[in-house]
Amino acid sequence: MISKELQKALIEQLNKEYHSAYIYLGMSAYCSKEGFNGASHWFLIQYQEEIAHGMKLFKYLEDQDVEIQLPAIEGVKVEYNSFLDVFKKSLAHEQMMTKNLNILSDLAMKDKDHATYNLLQWYVTEQVEEEATVKGIIDHVKLVGDNGYGLYTIDKELATRVFTD
Ligand code: OFO
């Protein structure tokens, strides 16, 4: 049985996963508007991944007989300053998610809730990959600066991303 405190925190995390998806949908819309169709596609895949993260948690909560609550998902912005800015904001968001997941893991560990701890480690590992990928993109964008052809090439590469989980 998951403790009440942890149940509440997991329900909040569920909302955060869907909110993340929504944030990425906004980022996708921004990139599309600016003509960065590859980046728009990349964020759309990111949106799908966050939905999958939410569904994984939703299924776990159901399996553990946690009473599901679905509070409102906060609205998001669709305006950013630049190609670089949108990826920087994406990284900052993922770093915040990593912090949350670490707090949740601490809570599961304190409760000696091995099943929940184990589930959370999947998310923690996923965060390492997500942060590294976004950092890599930021590095490339910084390298090309305002060079139009450079940005075009990065955008083209981002268009090749496929959905993995
Ligand atoms: Fe990218 O965050 Fe989900 O977990």
UniProtKB/TrEMBL annotation:
Fe cation binds at residues 17, 50, 53, 94, 127. It is an enzyme of class 1 (oxidoreductase). The lineage of its organism: Bacteria, Pseudomonadati, Campylobacterota, Epsilonproteobacteria, Campylobacterales. Residues 1-145 form the Ferritin-like diiron domain. It is found in: Cytoplasm. One of its GO terms (cellular component) is cytosol. Iron-storage protein. The keyword Magnesium does not apply. It catalyses: 4 Fe(2+) + O2 + 6 H2O = 4 iron(III) oxide-hydroxide + 12 H(+). Its EC number is 1.16.3.2. PROSITE patterns: FERRITIN_LIKE. Keywords: Cytoplasm, Iron, Iron storage, Metal-binding, Oxidoreductase. The keyword Plastid does not apply. Belongs to the ferritin family. Prokaryotic subfamily. GO terms for molecular function: ferric iron binding; ferrous iron binding; ferroxidase activity; identical protein binding. InterPro entries: Ferritin, Ferritin-like, Ferritin-like_diiron, Ferritin-like_SF, Ferritin_DPS_dom, Ferritin_prok. One of its GO terms (biological process) is iron ion transport. This is Ferritin.
